[in-house]
């Protein structure tokens, strides 16, 4: 698992920066009801997407939450007074406080299925009746774009995908939420090159392939043999699901 306090300084630049943030924010906003006035962005990270929510609609009040102090500090610089340091499994807000809740690129990081269920339950709890929860799903699958890099990495061990769409939907239903739409958006600037993938291997991006071990070294050697070492392959396309809290 990456250390997101250590990642904070390079996070935006290494993940598509403003173009990716713009695409994510536009897709999430497209799933929110027109009357949304209070939005909670769970796992807001550096606030690069959260800031766009706040600027997108007049009268939209946005609060960001993140549990990594270095990420929360960056978000607070973008949204002064609107960022809270907290864990998504224990949100420090009362029931039904928000018109909408978003969690972009969060659920795939959960260590256990119970963590995902708990996070979805907390998002449902702080959502008012008639509100909408929007989250990314199937993140790992989105990065498989059918490239030569994917072919090299296909045999790597994998941990269970905690954010599979069907699983997330089952957790949402269990907490009283019902499907209310979906969308997709491009992860601009996230298309991997062979050289970048080797760097990702060495810093622990691939959770089930520990950096510095023989397995990681073997994949790195095969990646180094690919042509066009610095040419990014196609960008991933991420998926969003929306869930309504009836009321």
UniProtKB/TrEMBL annotation:
Q: Which Pfam families match?
A: Methyltransf_11
Tell me the SUPFAM superfamilies matching this sequence.
S-adenosyl-L-methionine-dependent methyltransferases
Q: Name one GO molecular function term.
A: S-adenosylmethionine-dependent methyltransferase activity
Q: Does the keyword Kinase apply?
A: no
Q: What is this protein called?
A: Methyltransferase
Q: Which residues form the Methyltransferase type domain?
A: 40-134
Q: Which UniProt keywords apply?
A: Methyltransferase, Transferase
Q: Which CDD domains match?
A: AdoMet_MTases
User: Lineage of the native species?
Assistant: Bacteria, Bacillati, Actinomycetota, Actinomycetes, Kitasatosporales
Does Oxidoreductase count among this protein's keywords?
no
Please name the GO terms of the biological process aspect recorded for this protein, alphabetically. Answer: methylation
